[in-house]
TrEMBL record:
It comes from the Eukaryota. Gene3D superfamilies: 3.40.1800.20. One of its GO terms (molecular function) is zinc ion binding. Keywords: Metal-binding, Zinc, Zinc-finger. Pfam families: zf-AD. Zn(2+) binds at C16, C19, C67, C70. It comes from Diatraea saccharalis (sugarcane borer). InterPro entries: Znf_AD. This is ZAD domain-containing protein.
Length: 140
């Protein structure tokens, strides 16, 4: 794309700041309420989801617009990001609870109880001296 075409596109009042189409419908800096009832400010969503701050969005008299296609993609990306963060939080919570449980169970371990060699073989507990000196089970 040559400089003249870029100048022509950028100077259009309704050019989409995300894809340069001439279909900008939504103002990036305006607050909207989505169909699901959540507040959306598209410039903030770009920043939160991708870390992108659009240059000169408030400085120049250039377009502040974004097209419907880009809004849909931005919503999907933010939704996916939130899904991943939520899943990550679930794993972190699970890990922390498991860790706490393990610490509590280690505090409550009675004595090591010997088991018979046949029972150990049945449970496939190694008794080769490398992993265990003798066959014991933890009784919790």
């Amino acid at each position: 794309m040559d400089i003249q075409n870029i100048n022509d596109l950028v100077s259009q009042p309704d050019v989409c700041r995300c894809c340069l189409s001439a279909n900008g419908k939504w103002d990036l800096t305006t607050s909207y309420i989505s169909e699901s009832g959540t507040k959306e400010i598209y410039s903030e969503m770009l920043q939160e989801c991708y870390g992108i701050t659009l240059s000169h969005i408030k400085d120049w008299a250039t377009s502040h617009m974004v097209c419907s296609l880009c809004v849909g993609q931005l919503r999907d990306a933010c939704s996916f990001r939130n899904q991943v963060l939520s899943a990550s939080n679930c794993f972190a919570e699970y890990y922390n609870k498991a860790k706490e449980s393990l610490i509590k169970s280690e505090d409550n371990i009675d004595l090591l109880q010997p088991v018979s060699e046949s029972f150990a073989e049945e449970l496939l507990i190694p008794n080769d001296g490398k992993l265990m000196n003798s066959t014991y089970l933890y009784i919790i």
